[in-house]
Amino acid sequence: MGCCDTPGLMPVDTALTKILDQVKPLETATTVSLSEGMGLVLAEDICSPINVPPFANSAMDGYALRIADLENTDTLHMAGKSFAGIPYNGECQPGQCIRIMTGAQMPEGADTVIMQEETEVDGDNIRFTNKVSHGENVRPIGDDVHHGDVVVAKGNRITAREMPLLASLGIATLPVYRRPIVAFFSTGDELRPVGEPLEAGQIYDSNRYGIRALLEKFGCDVVDLGIIADCPEKLREAFDKATTADVLVTSGGVSVGEADYTKDILDEQGEIGFWKIAMKPGKPFAFGTIKNTWFCGLPGNPVSAMVTLYQLVQPMLAKLAGHSQYQPPQRLKAKATTVFKKRPGRADYQRGIYQINSEGQVEVATTGNQGSGAFSSMHQANCFVVLEQERGRVMPGEDVTIELFNQAMY
User: Per the database record, which ranges form the MoaB/Mog domain (predicted)?
Assistant: First the structure.
């Protein structure tokens, strides 16, 4: 048995595969206006109804002409002007040129544009001081998008990059999947809402704020059920309310061996697997169903809750939302500049600060305290330092894998 084969611990990749193998996309489609589409997932391919540009136009301020006319002369007569939205009304005849602005429609008969900086003007006689090639500085019809092209594929989440593209095609409505509805609550008699004074043995409920922020960034509609006391009746009531959602996320009460009502009620009402995952932070995790609602039970420690939500629940919610183009956070190789303390046995998601040094190399330093309750480490970090399950202590100068925070963390 190797050092990474810790008895009873499930590798992170295995846990994620088990989750994704069970979850199926909701695929409940609706239609929204373009302005309402931001962050939603397309339920159909979007094909262009037009060519972009819809007409050949000039890429420069200059003069439109027939390139063949410059074979025996360098001077042409300016016959008119073409502006953006006000095209030249007529044909560019042999021996003529048309003053044209950037984005203006090419006059009929013209095939090339010479920029104004390469001309000498004498009234309506324009001398061209530089030779150019046929078609230069002209954007042809469909240069960017052809009619019928798939411009944004089904399964893509609409971002600020897609919005102007879709608007440029005149697309007013979008076929999209509805957002997953995710209910969440925290459990524990020791928890108090922010803004209230703490008494002996009490702490503030920070998890709900981190969970809500991430869920909303994941593109979900959220239902905050608050803090639920360690009371069987209140817990049953909360679980009943949550079954109207697609997913229930809880924090606390899923540690194996923990004397807790939460686990007992989950065993009664659903089909839940309580897993010990070979990851740090975040070893205790629960996954399954309560009636028709997916259940994800996160650890109670703040950093553990956020790491498991980010690493395990984020890709699950992407699949549920129909986001088939979802990409996991980007990973890079980096040089460690500090010691990273670790024991073999669990994959470790330590919080790090990466930068590009003067030689163009990626390097990373620890944020310091890596305790599962030290949330300041998340505030300081801009990446996870992903230390392999079998790996031990990392010394400065060693190569490590870093995982850049994706948009959910910003």
Answer: 183-319
